[in-house]
Amino acid sequence: MSDIIQLLPDHVANQIAAGEVVQRPASVVKELLENAIDAGAETITLLLKDAGKTLIQVIDDGKGMSTTDARLCFERHATSKIKEAQDLFNLNTKGFRGEALASIAAIAHVELKTKQATEDVGTCVKIEGSTVVSQEVVNSAKGTSIAVKNLFYNIPARRNFLKSDTVETRHIIDEFQRVALAHPAIAFILHHNGNEVYHLKSSNLRKRIVGIFGGKTNEKLVPIEEHTDILTIKGFVAKPEFAKKKRGEQFFFVNDRFIKSSYLNHAVVNAFEGLLDNNAHPSYFLYLQVPPNSIDINIHPTKTEIKFDNEKNVYAILRATVKHSLGQYNVAPVLDFNRDATLDTPYDFKDKQTVSTPKIIVDPTFNPFKTESGTINHNSNSRSGVLNKNSNPPQNYKKDTGSWEALYADIQPIEPVKQEQLFDVEKENETGKTFQIQKKYILSSIKSGVVLIHQSLAHQRILYEEFLHNITVQEASSQQLLFPVSISFTKSDIEMIYSIKSDLESTGFVFNEFTKEGVVIGGIPTSITESQITLILEQLLDDIKLEVPDASFSHFDIMAKSFAKSLAIKTGTSLTVKEQENLVNNLFSCKEPNTSPFGKATFKTLPLSEIDSIFNK
Ligand code: ADP
Ligand code: MG
Predict the structure, then answer these.
(1) Fewest Cβ atoms nearer than 10 Å: which of 90, 219, 306, 516?
(2) Which ligand is nearest to the CA of 88?
(3) What pLDDT, in 10s, does the model give residues 72-90?
(4) How far apart are CA 439 and CA 570, in angstroms?
(5) Same domain membership, residue 386 and residue 440
(6) Which residue, 310, 303, 252, is CA-closest to 93?
(7) Where in the sequence is the domain holding 408, given as residue range(s)?
């Protein structure tokens, strides 16, 4: 038989790579802004037309490119930022893959004008679908201007998949804000369809935050600062009274790069413990500096997730620092330091007798995702994937003995709180401590009264956090199907699944084939069963179509919500005592147990005092 393998032509390879780099106009904005920053620009202007669908132009006054580089920059793996693999461990630029411009040029009409300060004239390169159309000498100012027109003009499926202008603009503004917040010293200007949206002068961090979020923000900010051997933290948190009902302004930057981290978010939320109303999300703008070789930013193609070498220490320091600042600025007059808050449950501790001198506990071993039996594991035989989880509450506390003691010399770790106390579920009465009511609620006795849990909403929360965790933190685990399953979908749905294929794969789905009529699935996440595949995918497609502007994060968030909604045990399902207990314990091991992924309350506590008052009228 003749040979059948051939190398993909460059323009095809570029188009495939573009699928990873460019999901929507906002991805182009991010890449271009970052290139301008890497070029040392002092002022960066972003011009948009039609939410970036017609035009995205970034103009900078950075170092510009030589005539040869102006052509070379569109080649795949063409970068001036790293020379050898070793450099990857010492990155101080935004880009390094040398993929962005090649990818963008593969799927749009691009016009580059650039001039170096030392040259008299500049270069203009026009390139369409990876083909250079012209290259000529032009008069231009020092710096670079890149105009990206008609994004996805040659991939109609992607273009059709773009959301309304409102939604796409929102995504662009999110990226713009992140970049502008990370670089307060650089001036940023944004125009959309000829209107000025932002004009941010070079300034300091506080002024930049106010410039973006408005004058009233100023009075809300509590400064945060801490220097340690392994990291420096600076920035602001908003006072608790300004916490938002919807997850609002939450920004982490690591080495001037915006990152998403549910793990670090947990540390901050934890520091606010006791200061926030149920369901409220604190705002924060936190800047972490760590040695570049102690993080791996390479684990995600669009680089918003990050891996720290010593994330438990980072967690502990961050939490202690925020807590300390809240205390210092008198916003936390009654902070309860007498226990390790990393172990808190939302139960009411205020009746506790012991009050000791304020202490901050640094617990570098804490990992909210660890259960006593190790990391969360799914059981594919279980109806829910969660109910069989180890029923004990997390036991993460280990006394700190590491080098952090030196840092917080005046702070003594306290003895671990006993588990019963911690979890506060009454142990004297081992059996029958939970009851199911109307196959809908679970009633559980706690020291300070009772807690009433909505089984379905609570389960949604548990599943949501597990999925999110599995997608973003762990390698997704997949179970191979003995016989691949074919599922029919409409053309547009197939296109949509295709466009989120890589996201789905990171949850554990394996796609063997995309046909005209549907998809053939060879593997599924371990947490679901074969019979649930269709339901889950259909629900997901619905949810993605309905995506609203403030839909929190990426597709991952929508996926996790959607999966949680599809898989959560429903009202009307009766649960064994063991299942009830697991549900209760797993709920209170969640990062945000108070609400379902959709913001509904998952439980309500009825303190004894309230119960008493019913009968003492
Ligand atoms: P990366 O940023 O990963 O190196 P890109 O494809 O984004 O890859 O850019 C390729 C190269 O083009 C960069 O390494 C840089 O040398 C050059 N470049 C891109 N944008 C600019 C700019 N605005 N000013 C100067 N040089 C630029
Ligand atoms: Mg780049």
Answers:
(1) 516
(2) 1
(3) 999 887 787 777 777 766 6
(4) 9
(5) no
(6) 303
(7) 358-412
CA of 95 relative to ligand 1 center, distance in Å: 8
Atom of ligand 1 nearest to the CA of 97: 3
The residues lining ligand 1, judged by C-beta closer than 6 Å to any ligand atom, are 31, 35-36, 39, 60, 62-65, 73, 78-81, 95-102, 144
CA–centroid distance, residue 379 to ligand 2 (Å)? 42
Phi/psi for 454 (5° steps) reads -85, 110
Q: What average pLDDT does this structure show over 610-615?
A: 88
Q: Which atom of ligand 1 is nearest to the CA of 36?
A: 23
Atom of ligand 1 nearest to the CA of 99: 6
Determine the distance separating the centroid of ligand 2 and the alpha carbon of 100, expressed in angstroms: 5
Q: Looking at the domain assignment, is residue 2 inside a domain?
A: no
> In terms of domains, do 473 and 514 share one?
yes
What CATH number is attached to the domain comprising 163?
3.30.565.10
Spatial CB neighbours of 382, under 8 Å, sequence gap ≥ 6: 388
User: What's the CA gap between 79 and 74, in Å, rounded?
Assistant: 9
Question: Where do runs of H (alpha helix) occur along 382-521?
Answer: 404-407, 419-423, 455-472, 491-499, 501-505
**Ligand 1, from 79, 87, 125, 148: best to mutate by most atoms within 8 Å of Cβ?**
79
Integer Cα distance of 288 and 310 in angstroms: 13
Cβ distance 384 to 378 under 8 Å? no
The model's pLDDT over 40-74, given as tens digits with 9 standing for 90+, comes to 999 999 999 999 999 999 999 999 999 999 999 99
Q: What is the 3-state secondary structure (H, E, C) of 509-573?
A: CEEEEECCCEEEEEEEECCCCHHHHHHHHHHHHHHHHCCCCCCCCCHHHHHHHHHHHHHCCCCCC
Domain finish residue from 177, 200, 223:
200
Least confident range from 78-82, 456-460, 497-501: namely 78-82
How many whole angstroms separate alpha carbon 168 and alpha carbon 150? 14
Give, for ligand 1, the residue of 35, 57, 179 to mutate: max count of ligand atoms closer than 8 Å to Cβ.
35
Amino acid at residue number 440: K
For the CA of 58, the nearest atom of ligand 1: 23
Sign of the CA dihedral running 74, 75, 76, 77 = negative
Pocket test for ligand 1, best of 71, 101, 113, 115 (most atoms within 8 A of CB): 101
| Shared-domain flag, residues 217 and 180 | no
DSSP character at residue 595: B
Query: What's 301's domain CATH number?
Result: 3.30.230.10
Q: Global pTM? A: 0.58
Least confident of 194-208, 249-263, 480-494, 600-614: 480-494
Cα 24 to ligand 1 centre (Å): 20
Is 615 a domain residue? Answer: no
Same domain, 142 and 291: no
| Backbone phi and psi for residue 513, each to the nearest 5 degrees, phi listed first | -160, 145
Distance, first Cα to last Cα, the chain? 92
140 and 174 in a common domain: yes
The candidate with the shortest Cα–Cα distance to 104, out of 213, 25, 51, is 25
